[in-house]
Amino acid sequence: xxxxxxxxxxxxxxxxxxxxxxxxxxxxxxxxxxxxxxxxxxxxxxxxxxxxxxxxxxxxxxxxxxxxxxxxxxxxxxxxxxxxxxxxxxxxxxxxxxxxxxxxxxxxxxxxxxxxxxxxxxxxxxxxxxxxxxxxxxxxxxxxxxxxxxxxxxxxxxxxxxxxxxxxxxxxxxxxxxxxxxxxxxxxxxxxxxxxxxxxxxxxxxxxxxxxxxxxxxxxxxxxxxxxxxxxxxxxxxxxxxxxxxxxxxxxxxxxxxxxxxxxxxxxxxxxxxxxxxxxxxxxxxxxxxxxxxxxxxxxxxxxxxxxxxxxxxxxxxxxxxxxxxxxxx
Length: 330
Description:
alpha/beta, Rossmann fold, 2 domains, 6-stranded mixed β-sheet, 4-stranded parallel β-sheet, 10 strands, 16% strand, globular, disordered N terminus
């Protein structure tokens, strides 16, 4: 990567976790993409999406990108655009993490807020607003994270090869959080092309329509979808876990209190999913997961006891033992 940070993201470490679960016969590894420059694995996605437009000539310095985002991609695109001299407009809804919006603005992005639509489909409303902005700004483009092949390509060419290199090619299960399904799909393409025996596990939110899910109210951004993204039509995970938001909170807190890793809600969902899967994982297995983003933007939600009680109606748990009980992990 050059000094401006405009090319590929830096390689993030994959580390072994010994304290997360009481399962000494199973090796657990975490890929720390919260250490990417913009704080999430979306740094890879944003770099791939923007670079494709630049290489094609469809976007030049001084141009404009418009994208629908719930947070992390908006932050990553804001950073990618500022180092290229590109104007960026993030179309967000009322569920957007306020800390994430502050970070986008700090990078110079414009934030366009879509109010709650009558039908409640926030994603569809954001995408409609993107089209309106494109029509009103000739020459502007959208990176279309929901359908662009350059989204999964980022993870096919970097995320999955890095994991396999770090683990000497030996991995039994990989847990990936899903929204656009770009990360999942890139890993899926790599696993199949390389003929790997790695089982691919999709972690989704309760209330998401992905994988034949039933639409419902979701308060935490970054996991699940209210409308089917085009990329999801190609996604074929070996297993799907659908996680309620209170368990995302407890998963985040368990990871923080046992391993000292402060992660976002989607990673908390993965921790909860791994906990559910543990009884069925054979001794000697190696499992890995992505730490998709940092928990810093979630300090006022996931890590705030009052917010959890008020919005989720449950006690979050105040120590690792209570959190483990709340996750039903033994």
